[in-house]
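My main concern about presentation is that the manuscript never shows what a single data entry looks like. An entry of this sort, consisting of the sequence and the corresponding backbone structure tokens, reads as follows:
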Amino acid sequence: MESNPETPLDNSIVSEKSRPPFIRSFFLFLWEVVKVVIIALAIILPLRAFIAQPFLVSGQSMQPSFHDGDYLIIDELSYRLRDPLRGEVVVLRFPRDPSQFYIKRIVGLPGETVSIREGVVTIVNSDYPAGFTLREENYLEAETVTQGNLILTLGEDQYFVLGDNRAQSSDSRSWGALDRRFVIGRAWLGLFPLERLQVFRAFDYSDL
């Protein structure tokens, strides 16, 4: 007995038009969601990789300037266009364990000699061959003492970084100069808590 060619042999085949309207609407909605996600990722991922990314402060090494739990936005773009400045607060990878992230303040620039003696930080460079005292009272607690006794000359692309809470900070005093390749970006914007909402700039030592 021959089968009728006009009768479908596979009843599981259903045309697009035969789907109920709510199913077609669901798939159209799902496709729109997928497109939005793809577009969002195409925008957000490059932003986080090359321009800015969030950072949560953990620990007390930068008090009183930054507190544990502060939520920041880190500017990664500026250092692709210029060198870091003295007084800027940067997020970096810990040179001895790059999986860890630190937040510190830059006080010494490439080619300079940094000296710490009797609680005083002195910078020697081509503009100040006799050295100048780094005055930090605007961002340090009044009773802060910069512990340590060292003299370190920085090489090309090296920086000297310190935490503002000198007694609670692991920084260049203990692990040496910071190579620029470990610098991720500068602290740019404080978002949370809201009472600490602000835009950060390099501290201007020339006014002291």
Remarks:
- The helical segments are 21-51, 78-81, 172-175.
- Residues 52-207 form a domain with the Umud Fragment, subunit A fold (CATH 2.10.109.10).
- Residues 5-16 have pLDDT under 50 and may be disordered.
